[in-house]
Design brief:
Length: 102
């Protein structure tokens, strides 16, 4: 076994002798953590926006609670499902002659 003693132990000395560890695993972890954090931020942002939209629609309480559960428990897909189905629920109740029901 041949060992080297590095007096300065600077980064260049380490790289020149080839005794430095490969840090690609650390960078992969860092960027993976950054990407996962971005996905969580998008998920929570969309879930908050959809929650506001659901609360603004006129629908039965059970249906509203069901949609909120779908949106919060199924990341990103739940919000997409709501946005696809949101036209089924009117923002306010109206009767056929156009008057608003309060």
């Amino acid at each position: 076994m041949h060992s080297h003693v590095l007096a300065a132990a600077g980064l260049q000395d380490c790289a020149d002798t080839g005794v430095c560890a490969d840090d690609s695993g650390l960078w992969t972890f860092f960027f993976g953590l950054l990407a996962a954090s971005a996905v969580v931020v998008v998920w929570i942002s969309l879930a908050c926006l959809v929650t506001i939209a659901i609360n603004g629609r006129s629908m039965a309480t059970r249906r509203q609670v069901g949609w909120l559960a779908v949106v919060w428990l199924i990341p990103l897909v739940g919000a997409g499902m709501w946005w696809r189905q949101r036209h089924s629920y009117s923002p306010e109740r109206t009767i056929p002659d156009g008057h608003r029901v309060t």
